[in-house]
Write a structure and sequence with these properties.
Layout lengths: L17 H6 L37 E5 L3 H13 L4 E5 L5 H10 L2
Parallel strand pairs: 1-2
Length: about 110
């Protein structure tokens, strides 16, 4: 809507990427967030397979919201570590909380 002239300013927690910098002018952030990996912890009697560093992601499936900047970031990370991270995009309409619920339920 901003780029269509329907507004003059946007207040939204939008991750800054090179492509987005070409489309809009970013200002100083009001707050900062970090990208985090949400994973299940090992249950009682299960081996501990928690991901502790980026190299543990090689060969693993990581789900992201379709159209989000997380896919680009994970792709870059995959190239940096020299191993494939399997990136699966969930539907564009999916909420972050829905993805977290899927992790919690073991999906």
């Amino acid at each position: 809507m901003l780029n269509d002239g329907e507004g003059d300013i946007l207040a939204f927690p939008l991750t800054i990427t090179l492509d987005r910098r070409e489309q809009v002018a970013f200002t100083s952030p009001v707050f900062l967030t970090r990208q985090v990996l949400v994973q299940r912890t090992a249950g009682q009697g299960q081996s501990n397979t928690e991901i502790r560093n980026v190299h543990d992601l090689v060969g693993k499936e990581v789900y992201v919201k379709q159209g989000s900047s997380f896919k680009e970031r994970l792709g870059n990370l995959s190239n940096e570590i020299g191993g494939e991270i399997i990136i699966i995009e969930d539907s564009a309409g999916a909420e972050t909380e829905a993805l977290i619920r899927k992790v919690a339920s073991g999906e």
